[in-house]
């Protein structure tokens, strides 16, 4: 005879199974939610604009940087995701753009793939090698000492056909895109490639007609750039210095005296400054100085190549301090121009 089950017993079992099912579903849901949040939930903060990973960094280096700079909301979760995605074996140096709310999966994928954000390096009219080295090191990974050592390395720069004096002419002021972790050697190679592109057949032919090398054009352009406050006056100034150069007259360019004296606060060049014994002092030495006195702009280089033809051999700043110059073809006219300017300086009590 079959034993009948009590109604209450059946209800209890059903309720238990339902409850157990709900618990399992809830646990699975929580697990799925936790998984989703770890991988796909917002993670990257707005504490930094970029993550910089230095060449040779390990995963631990990257992780410590992320923790220190609070780049993600939960560094422990980030590490769990990074490990699960096998990122530790794929660390790539570079500058990585961070977007607030970026999830861990996207963040790690970006780092694994090395999808870094390029740097836009722009430079113009850097005066000294040290200034340039410092600027580059602030934008790219190589430090200033490394850049400077290559600029001063005769063995290294001779590979590009330059000397320690004229190497500065290789750098054409412009804007360039490159990756942050570019090596110092590759940076120089990139700049040389850009230099080769700049000196196209048209510019080379113009330099040949002037009887000047590419370096000579840039050296003269650096003087023109230092003299000209207004770009539209550059071709006239270039023509003046070419007239002096071709006639064997000393250039007598005040900016070269300022450079030779290493005093860039100087507003008035005095006789004592003209006596500075330096190959850059064009009051003492004929011809061009051995190197540029600043990094010449493209406009200045082209102003030399497309100089204005005239008979001027003298120039003096205008007494109205407009930044323009009075030009002269003879000494008496130049002296009159210079006297007016000297009087204007005295009226403004500018002594040096």
Outline the structure in words:
The chain is mainly alpha-helical and 352 residues long. The protein is 50% helix and 7% strand. The chain has 15 helices and six strands. It has a two-stranded antiparallel sheet. A hairpin with a 7-residue loop joins β5 and β6. α5 (129-139) crosses α6, α10 packs across α11 and α11 crosses α14 (298-305). The longest helix has 34 residues, at 7-40. The chain is elongated and about 120 Å long. The N and C termini lie far apart (125 Å). The model has no long low-confidence stretch (mean pLDDT 90).
- Spatial strand sequence of the major β-sheet: 1-2
- Report mean pLDDT, rounded to a whole number: 90
Number of helices: 15
Poorly predicted runs are: none
* Beta strand %: 5-15%
Shape: elongated
Major beta-sheet overview: 2 strands, antiparallel
Counting helices, strands and paired strands, the structural category is: mainly alpha
State the helicity in percent bands: 40-55%
The separation of the N and C termini measures 125 Å
Let me know the number of strands. Answer: 6
User: Topology as H/E string?
Assistant: HEHHEHEHHHEHHHHHHHEEH
Q: What is the C-alpha radius of gyration, as a whole number of Å? A: 34 Å
